[in-house]
Amino acid sequence: MTDTLRIGGGHVLRPDMSVEEADVLVDRVSGEILEVGDVPGGDATLDASGGLVMPGLVNAHTHTAMTLLRGYADDKPLETWLREDIWPAEGELTPEDVRAGTDLALLEMIESGTTGFADMYFHMPEVVDAVDEAGLRARIGHGVVTVGKDEDEARADNEESLEVAREYDGAAEGRVSTAYTPHSLTTVGEEFLVEFTEEARDEGIPLHFHANETEDEVDPILAQEDQRPLAYADDLGMLTDEDWVAHGVHVDDTEIDLLAERGTAVVHCPASNMKLASGAAPVQDLLDAGVTVGLGTDGAASNNDLDMFDEMRDAAMLGKLSTGDASAVPAEAVVEMATAGSADALGFDAGRIEEGRKADLAVVDFETARLTPVHDYVSHLAYAASGADVRHTVCDGQVLMRDGEVQTLDAEAVRERAADHAERVTERAG
Ligand SMILES: CSC[C@H]1O[C@@H](n2cnc3c(O)ncnc32)[C@H](O)[C@@H]1O
Ligand SMILES: [Zn+2]
């Protein structure tokens, strides 16, 4: 027996970036798209008139509970920001804080049409519970840092990452999947990267890590290993077509070719890269080389929001500015990066509106001043729309937001609790 949801009366964005007048019929039991076209009926309906049904946005690199640190420390470069402000504050985070910050992040995501994300953080059981209740799709990992830790602590951190990956893969009725997530090539010791990557491989667990984000991260690897960072990562077995790296700002042509050969995806985080003055990733070169490129916000403390519409616009603008080529990173490319590219990077069977795919969808209301007139829907998604234009959000066939009202979270309570936890964390951090 099927139990269907019809999202009808609007336009639909298809995988080839064409737009047609159509309805989308969803099976609420399997969570899959049944049909796209002129579809009558449906056991339940969502009104898409005056709107565009698009794949739900996928934020392929973030640290969700960093919403608690939004605006806590700004206007510093990465290394200084992490060491002076962020890591001391994170040292104070309790599981309850992480739950409150994650709930706030998930609320912001649902409100702005994001249906899936990747999270690298701590206290992951709380994150899994939050994802389960909010109804989103996520690939999660316990982030590992071994610098400054003794051998036993460092080993325990890596073991926790693998344990989390084993325990929670398939949680939340299959909406949660996992990864082994060493923070970066410079913050986790080589002996641990080798040992735990091999264990992850044996168990089919993919890898996600920050790579080539700043020159300060590239230079020590060049000096110590006489190798580019991604060649070094490849020698450690860290680049396969299941894995995805965040940033890839300072990659040279040999590294771009290596990523393409290995099938490893790169998640571009333009707002974070601009705010921390890390640099501009060679996104058009990555795309031209055939690398899968996704899009991510990074944490809310270096962005400072989780709005993937902002991220699309930033990606397109930065792609042009950094190359001096206005045709670089066009609208279609950034919309594809934020949907199919990110979904492919994370191994989600989503990101495209076609029969049989997961019904992870957003309906954008085009009947607003900033989206009038409509010469080109895709142009508006990339350059003019905002998360505030999202009318409905659907994940796995379930309605998470209807007419701007989030159904799975009590928005006011989530905001109040997060503000309260944020205040207490920053007080403790001093
Ligand atoms: C070990 S959990 C993840 C860890 O990453 C930190 N982080 C946040 N933003 C960035 C970034 O842009 N580059 C590197 N690390 C980042 C976060 O604060 C957590 O400590
Ligand atoms: Zn990050």
Automatic annotation (TrEMBL):
The keyword Metal-binding applies. Zn(2+) binds at residues 61, 63, 210, 298. The keyword Hydrolase applies. Its cofactor is Zn(2+). It comes from the Archaea. Keywords: Hydrolase, Metal-binding, Zinc. This is 5-methylthioadenosine/S-adenosylhomocysteine deaminase. It comes from Halospeciosus flavus.
